[in-house]
Write a structure and sequence with these properties.
The complex is a heterodimer of chains A (about 220) and B (about 500). With about 220 residues, chain A is α/β, with parallel strands linked by helices. Helices cover about 55% and strands about 10% of the residues of chain A. In chain A, helix 8 links the parallel strand 4 (about 180-185) and strand 5. Chain B is built from 17 helices and 18 strands. In chain B, helix 3 packs across helix 9 (about 245-270) and helix 11 runs parallel beside helix 12. The chains are: A alpha/beta (about 220), B alpha/beta (about 500).
Chain lengths: ~220, ~500
């Protein structure tokens, strides 16, 4: 590969790491114009970059604004690359379909938005139901949208019990085997997740991605 | 005797900064508007000629209307205790501390772990606060987990009125509870006029950041205003998460949201008492949490109070609380810094005492320690008094060759007024401290809680008032499907 073209992948990767949302799309286009296949760009530039963003977050260098900016830059690049794939008849294999929302009675959506952004950046298809979402809506949407995962957020100790209600409804409708459930939010703990029978629990938005991946791969999502 | 005392003051905004924030807030509510999800409030605003986008419940407020409302809103409020005798001025430089609310957990004195609170915890807290001389008001500070969630808000106030004489800071969790909670206050005072003349409780109402007043909170503003019950506006922007990341930017949003609350109250009833307060926080971009003990949080609170004073309104803030999970050095540091700043900023109602873990855990031991912190902070506000003229010269004429100040009548006359006496801070010499069991402040506070609870005396509520309170509580509980209330001892 020529050095000149390597520069394109490198610049795109850097743009994602640095969260340059406006530049990521045009840089993806440049990479395509230089002759790279969309899938190559994704595998060689985008995915390693977003993983680096996650690493910088986990080691404490990055704070929430950098984390979000990285995810947004990734999204901008992926929009360009996916369009290119479609026009050449290819399609990107989804990492999984996730229905996400904050449970009923809880209007807090900062944490949920973070997880949604990170999942999207990691190649998941995310159906975001917003905040204060009724138990039934999670289950019905997951069925309609043929989702693989349901992700439940709660900030209040008073509302986290509604995460349990989702588990109960899934069981009563015989959907427990078909759908994996991951839970999170400030008051939620690994222990609580296990008690209500959820499949996965993540302490942060970055961990949520690892949990979702593990669940898609058929493993357990708990950080035991 | 002269009384030329300088009240120490802290300010965070220059007059130019003040004006700029106020101007931007006027522009924000005019151009971007506010989202108001309450039909009755929208009707009031429509009648007042405000532009409304019905599809999004968005209201654009004119500067003219806000300025009119600032004129009708009282600059000071008087609260009264349960007997209606003791008066508390909420305004000017007066500072009244009260416990932070509403905690969903209590720090267990023995296990040092947080746990759910029950009826007996609430009662113990109310009893203890009755004995804390530096907390002028009670607040419905704990949520009792032994009653259904549907009645948790009213139940707190019901117990409070049975066990406390002090005025209350309270609020609703559900719109259905508002009427019965106001009925409890009416039962104590006798009728609407007496309640309006002598308010017994302040109702907190929190807009949802950014720029929204929900059905619940707007209804609280309207119904309280009509009864003359003071509304305390509690915007809670989180810098960079639910409000601009800069402190000044968050102040603009906080003021815009407060203008909305002010206008709703004044349209419901001109002259309705309103307190400009808040529970903003400098959002932690690493942890995604809302530190109440962060310096930025305190700066927003103090600066907002400065803005409210400039607008001639009573003030409030959530200050003097900690994010620590234990009653430790961090708890003392954050509480003392907040309480001191609140006093120096002259904030009228200061909620926070006893609180840990981002406004979610109450501690009896911390309440006792915070009582001392508040007492020390209040001491600062009384400044350095010029008690006699001359200040000292005459003493030296009176003193014998041994310069024994302890024997002077001047010493006896002034020492109690000049000095604050703490109940739990350690000022023992080392050997005494050792002889007393080498206790740290948390252990001493535990003993002090027990001592104070043994001194508590229940208010003598007239039997017809007590039975009326019970009737209201029981019938509301029944309407929520609860036949029996927990036993009260």
């Amino acid at each position: 590969m020529k050095t000149e073209t390597d520069i394109h992948l490198h610049s795109l990767s850097q743009a994602i790491i640095q969260g340059l949302v406006e530049e990521a799309g045009p840089l993806a286009e440049k990479a395509l114009a230089a002759g790279f296949q969309p899938l190559q760009v994704i595998e060689k530039a985008c995915l390693p970059a977003i993983e680096e963003v996650g690493r910088l977050w986990e080691c404490g260098d990055y704070f929430l604004p950098e984390l979000i900016a990285g995810a947004e830059a990734m999204k901008a690049a992926m929009a360009v690359l996916q369009t290119a794939m479609k026009s050449s008849g290819q399609s990107l294999k989804s990492a999984g379909r996730v229905v996400i929302g904050t449970v009923e009675g809880d209007i807090h959506d900062i944490g949920k938005n973070l997880v949604a952004s990170m999942l999207r950046a990691a190649g998941f298809e995310v159906i975001d139901l917003g905040a204060d979402v009724k138990v039934e809506r999670f289950v019905e949407t997951a069925v309609e949208e043929k989702a693989d995962l349901i992700a439940l957020s709660a900030l209040l100790t008073t509302t986290m019990l509604n995460q349990k209600k989702v588990m109960e409804l899934l069981a009563s409708r015989g959907l427990r085997e078909r759908l994996k459930v991951m839970v999170g939010g400030a008051p939620v703990t690994e222990k609580f997740a296990r008690e209500i029978g959820a499949d996965g629990y993540g302490e942060s938005a970055v961990q949520a991605v690892a949990v979702a991946r593990a669940l898609m791969a058929g493993g357990g999502g708990n950080h035991d | 005797m002269t009384e030329e005392v300088l009240r120490p003051q802290v300010k965070f905004l220059s007059s130019r900064a003040l004006e700029q924030i106020i101007d931007e807030a006027f522009e924000l509510v005019d151009k971007t508007g506010l989202f108001i999800e309450n039909e009755e409030a929208l009707e009031l605003l429509g009648e007042a000629g405000q532009k409304i986008d019905r599809s999004r419940n968005r209201v654009f407020l004119s500067r003219n209307l806000i300025e009119k409302c600032l004129q009708t809103c009282p600059s000071e409020i008087r609260l009264y205790d349960q007997d209606g005798h003791r008066e508390y001025l909420v305004g000017r430089d007066e500072v009244h501390f009260n416990p932070g609310s509403a905690a969903i957990k209590i720090l267990d004195s023995v296990t040092l772990k947080e746990r759910e609170a029950g009826t007996s915890d609430l009662i113990a807290l109310y009893k203890l606060v009755e004995t804390l001389e530096n907390l002028d008001f009670q607040s419905t500070a704990l949520v009792s987990a032994d009653v259904p969630r549907e009645i948790a808000d009213i139940y707190r106030l019901y117990l409070g009125l049975l066990f406390s004489r002090k005025p209350f800071v309270t609020g609703i969790f559900r719109v259905e509870s508002l009427r019965p909670m106001l009925d409890l206050l009416l039962a104590v005072r006798g009728d609407e006029r007496s309640l309006s003349e002598k308010p017994l409780a302040i109702f907190d109402a929190c807009p949802s950041p950014p720029l929204k007043w929900s059905r619940l909170t707007a209804q609280s503003l309207i119904d309280c205003s009509r009864l003359g019950v003071p509304s305390e506006l509690i915007p809670m922007g989180l810098t960079g998460a639910t409000s601009p990341v800069t402190l000044a930017g968050t102040l603009v949003q906080q003021l815009a949201e407060s203008f909305g609350g002010l206008v709703i109250c004044q349209l419901a009833r001109p002259g309705a008492p309103v307190i400009f307060g808040g529970s903003p926080a400098g959002f932690d971009m690493r942890k995604g949490t809302t530190p109440m003990g962060a310096p930025e949080t305190m700066m927003i609170d103090c600066a907002f109070a400065q803005i409210a004073r400039r607008l001639n309104l009573p003030t409030h803030a959530y200050l003097g609380l900690s994010d620590s999970k234990l009653v430790d050095a961090q708890a003392g540091l954050e509480t003392a810094m907040g309480a001191t700043l609140a006093v120096l900023a002259g904030i009228n109602v200061v909620s926070g005492a006893g609180m840990l873990n981002f406004e979610s855990t109450q501690s009896l031991e911390k309440l006792v320690i915070d009582n001392d912190i508040c007492g020390q902070a209040l001491r600062l506000s009384r400044g350095i008094a010029l008690r006699e003229k001359p200040l000292a010269l005459h003493l030296f004429e009176e003193l014998g060759p041994d310069f024994n100040f302890l024997v002077l009548s001047h010493t006896r006359k002034w020492y109690r007024q000049e000095h604050y006496f703490s109940s739990v801070l350690d000022r023992d010499v080392y050997d005494t401290w050792t002889a007393l069991g080498r206790l740290d402040i948390f252990q001493r506070a535990g003993k002090e809680v027990a001592r104070r609870l043994s001194l508590y005396r229940k208010p003598e509520l007239k039997s017809e008032i007590a039975s009326e309170l019970k009737k209201i509580m029981v019938s509301y509980a029944a309407s929520c499907g609860l036949d029996e209330l927990p036993e009260i001892s």
